[in-house]
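quick one
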Amino acid sequence: MIVDSTVYSGKCVCGREHQMSTRAAVIEAGCLGRLDEILREYGIGGKRCALYGENGWAAAAGLHPRAEQEIVLDPKGLHADEKSTALVLEKLEPDVELILAVGSGTIHDIARFCAHERGIRFVSVPTAASVDGFCSTVAAMTWYGYKKTLPAVAPELVVADTDIIKKAPVELVRSGVGDIMAKYIALAEWKIAHLTTGEYLCPRILDIMRQAADTVTESVPGLLEGRDEAFESVTYALVMSGIAMQMMGNSRPASGAEHHISHMIEMGPEALEVRFPAMHGEKTGVGSVLAAREYERLAAVEDIRPAIRDYAPLDEERCRAFFGERLMEGVLAENEKDCLAAVTPERLAEAWPEIRQILSEIPSSEKLYALLERLGAKRTLEDIGVSSGELDRVLEFSPLVRNRLTLMRMRRMIRT
Ligand SMILES: [Zn+2]
Ligand SMILES: [Zn+2]
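structure w/ zinc ion:
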């Protein structure tokens, strides 16, 4: 299948003019073998550098695209951070005009950041359906320990060979499902922010995201049976999620409280013991279950008025004790213009019935949990290396890693 993303460009019902940088996504069995032809068709030429992780290198064995330069990164301890990007920028020959990212999420983030730095073209060749960020315009980076999104370029083209994607280790597609599951929470957060503060919202982006999430959850049985169409559907949904982010210009429709849980665990606060690392989508999958469960608890409260308190800035002492000195500077900078300050107790109380309605549209935490269980994916804090006794602190501090209005952040104004 070919997704022509130019149809998402232009004037929209939301009043904005959406701008797409990705022109198309080719999602087909065997399409990597036709890469030269596809690039020619879209007029993408010039000297190429193919960037791989060792896993992507192995996954695409026998189908390595023709490229004047090849860089293969050691996957051990590989992160999209200041070190890996500096290494690639140093190796990248000065006259390279196009980066081909062949691999999963991390390779893509490194590639899109470096292409942006160099001002060159970028084409995505995902080798696993592991994350939704393939055609995102921003790169999810860990910058000197702090998790942030940095400006980058979206791929001009995505060439997703489902023959390769299907053969990727099963935990990668489990992770992709966990990353898409997050959209149910993220979309609810966005609607609630729109309702309480008038934050911009686009109904078209909302629909695309919701459909992507539904497509993935419906594909789970097919994934388990190893059916080609299921892998194609999931890849399609991950691409569409990236397209929705591109229409938005940031990750608002894709990332809410569940992503903040994932990011915080990844940053490694001083007082939080993280026994082993987990993949991005594994953490957002668990984060989605935790957020859904907490929101069910909140939604059960019919009259919120007695529990509402005035806005107060964050408690620096408590934050410092949890995050530690290394992360505290970043946390303070992120929260300097606290988006929660825009929410008044009156507005929160008034909007509560509608907030409860929005929350009821999130699939139940049991349903999300059961879906992950069916896939054999990680589904509890313990599964991702964090003690279950840390739940309260995870819910309290995770919203602070990103200054984005979520219901989890609003809990500061609700006695829970
Ligand atoms: Zn719109
Ligand atoms: Zn994600």
